[in-house]
Amino acid sequence: MKRLSPKRYDKIQKHVTRVLFSYVFLIFPFDIESFIRILPKVELKYYREYENPLLLLKVSNDGFGFMRPDGIYVIVINDARPIKRQRFTIAHELGHFVLGHFSKKDLDEETKEAEANFFAARLLAPNWAIKRLKNKDVWSISTAFGISEESAMYRYRNYNNWFTYGHPMTELESQMSEYCFFKEVELGIYVE
Ligand SMILES: [Zn+2]
After folding, report:
1. What is the pLDDT of residues 83-130, one digit of tens each?
2. Residue 98 sits in which domain range?
């Protein structure tokens, strides 16, 4: 077998790491649906899968999450809503689960909602990834991360604050920032 130069092996190893590292997590827009499907204790369902979606609309226009008696957390999403809205709702409902809101009786509903929104916004469009965009305007953020222009506006403001105050990142975050990439680059959102 042909032996390659150490430099080449090194280069290939870096590519391997990049492919493994970027799977699902570091390709934006973040594929929240695929991500949910690999989680063992979470299930994703859509209103259209139910016999009477009108009843579900009475619960919520966007979607909701609930703990099934078998211990599986079920996220139910209104698939008639715009896709960017659905993505945010999935991330929001996942937030309630990850943050353990179902067992936290001491937190009021308003706090839980604020926490889940914070979680969702930063899961779909992390500051360390926004940092990589050449154009950091609302439209570019909305397109690159698959979030609504309204969410992108909040992220834009928050990003600017974060950046102004020294943009702190953990070691892992700066690595992810270096490795992440964007599907929409061909649309003119060039990465720095
Ligand atoms: Zn909520």
Report:
1. 999 999 999 999 999 999 988 788 899 999 999 999 999 999 999 999
2. 21-124
Q: 8 C-alpha to center of ligand 1: Å? A: 49
The answer to the question of residue 8 being in a domain is no
Task: CATH number of the domain at 26, please.
Answer: 1.10.10
Number of domains in the chain: 2
Ligand 1 centroid to 113 CA: how many Å? 5
Same-domain check for residues 132 and 85: no
| Secondary structure of the chain in HEC code, one letter for each residue | CCCCCHHHHHHHHHHHHHHHHHCCCCEECCCHHHHHHHCCCEEEEEHHHCCCHHHHHHHCCCEEEEECCCCCEEEEECCCCCHHHHHHHHHHHHHHHHCCCCCCCCCCHHHHHHHHHHHHHHHHCCHHHHCCECCCCHHHHHHHHCCCHHHHHHHHHHHHHHHHCCCCCCHHHHHHHHHCEEHHHHHCCCEC
| CA–centroid distance, residue 147 to ligand 1 (Å) | 17
Instruction: Quote the ligand 1 centre to 101 CA distance (angstroms).
Output: 10
Q: Taking the model in full, what pTM does it have?
A: 0.86
Report CA(92)–ligand 1 centroid distance (Å): 6
